[in-house]
Amino acid sequence: MPEYKLLAVDLDDTLLDKNLRISDETREALARAQRSGVVVTLATGRMFRAALPFAVELKINAPIITYQGALVKHPVTGEVVLHRPVPLDYALDIMDRVNAYGYHMNIYLDDRLYVARHTEQSRLYQSISRVEAEEVGPLIPFLERAGQDPTKVLVIAREEELDALAAQLKPVYGDKLHITKSKPYFLEFSHPAATKGHALAAVAGYYGLEPGQVIAVGDSYNDLEMIEWAGLGVAVANARPEIQARADVVTASNEEGGVARVVERFILGIRGNGYPGGAGGGTTG
């Protein structure tokens, strides 16, 4: 079995349960991985400030991947490993196009969250992220006054509406922007190199590691790049079938300790309890 040195784990619907908590079992498994010399990090679409409490809880002493990979920052030292924001002109164009549909938008500047006005969607986002949104009125004039590239732009609507919007805008922007869903009702626009895959490569390079020494665990479309980049790409059982199909291994769900199962099998080398002999599209846990 390869000797893995870096474990990157998505937060929502992967590491966190339905109550947005980390189970005692999973917390202990990750602590054991760290004691064994493995670097543990988070890879999330959340803001840095929204991911930080979980990094503190897990005693992570490594750069964490936030904003889908747009910001990689050390939770202890504050070192910024990379920041790849959306160019201002593109951000304004996105917002102008989305305004025509009336969908809710979030923009992010300096790790702060801004909305035009509070809505049912902003309250939903606040409840998940545990970050207070700042109401600033129409977003285009606000961003023009700020004159700053936002870290990302997020649109909240029904899944079928977001799928139609993405289908319309992907050809418009081509390789100039990365467009992905982090949840069925969150559509995210970011710098073309702001993916979890590119960010994970940067974190691995920070430690002088190759893809074969890295495990990535996730559940959603925004996790695909890191699942495919890592030497061992893992999907939790609650991931959609198309995500599971792209992973090397499918582990138990986020409610059933899937991340703990990965640590036990592929880092600590614990066999039995229904674990397979290896990867290659099998299931662990």
Automatic annotation (TrEMBL):
Keyword Disulfide bond among UniProt keywords: no
Q: Does the keyword Hydrolase apply?
A: yes
The protein's name is Cof-type HAD-IIB family hydrolase
Which Pfam families would you find in this protein's record?
Hydrolase_3
Which keywords has UniProt assigned to this entry? Answer: Hydrolase
Q: Which SUPFAM superfamilies match?
A: HAD-like
Cited InterPro entries: Cof, HAD-like_sf, HAD-SF_hydro_IIB, HAD_sf
User: What are the GO MF terms of this UniProt record?
Assistant: magnesium ion binding; phosphatase activity
